[in-house]
Amino acid sequence: MTVLADINKRIEEAPEGKLFFVSDFGEYDNSYVSKLLALSSDFNVLERLAKGVYYKPVVTRFGKVYPTAEEIVRCIAERDHAEILPAGEAALHALGFSTQVPVNPAYITTGSPRVIKIGNKTIRLKSRVPGACAFRSKLMPVLVAALKAKGRNNIGEEDIQHIRELVAKSDEKELIRKDTADAPVWIKKLLRQIFKETNYEPVAR
Predict the structure, then answer these.
(1) Burial readout 71-100 (b: 16 or more C-beta within 10 A, e: otherwise)
(2) Angle at CA 144, nearest 5°, toward 162 and 117?
(3) Which of 88, 117, 122, 145 is the most buried (most CB within 10 A)?
(4) Quick one: DSSP state of residue 128?
């Protein structure tokens, strides 16, 4: 079987909604695979989302259905063995502070930064800043990003109650307790006050 036939067969047999990376065909020359995937894009078999990233669209009577930002970044994280965390409005939405799905979400990554365009939407993967991915718990880095996006002067009682609920539901309370010491000063003070009110005292530093 030729390289072209093999790649076409794998694309044809893949379910709609499947993301393809050039690296998925690592047994072949990358530049040649890139040309073949680009050719599939030209013939509307695949759609190019970003350099080296293609998508087999889900087609309905209402048109094409694109993957969500979360699905795309999860696939990229798995492929690159990288950590990717929501930032800004994406963090607010991920933790339930906002019900509005961001049109152009941003994420921080331990992998390569990139911009992915889906129709009129843009997903930005930014290089992490020092300490952004250094927390021990899964909740704290996203919570810190969400609170920064919210702004210290815009946090109301409803937000504070939501933080209480997020911590109460978490099975990482001990890690969160340790992580609080490494949060930005104003977030550290806010969390310490919340934990004090709920008789859950974080580590002091």
Answers:
(1) ebbebbbeebebebbbbbbbbbbbbebbee
(2) 105
(3) 145
(4) P
Quote the CA–CA distance of 180 and 173 in Å, as a whole number: 11
Do residues 11 and 20 lie in contact, with contact meaning Cβ atoms separated by under 8 Å?
yes
d(CA 83, CA 93): 18
Using one digit for the tens of pLDDT, what is the confidence trace for 52-101? 889 998 988 888 888 888 888 888 888 888 889 999 999 999 999 999 88
Gyration radius from the chain CA atoms: 21
Element (H, E) at 53: strand 53-55
Q: In what order do the strands lie in the sheet with 19-21?
A: 19-21, 53-55, 47-50
- 187 vs 181: CA distance, rounded Å: 10
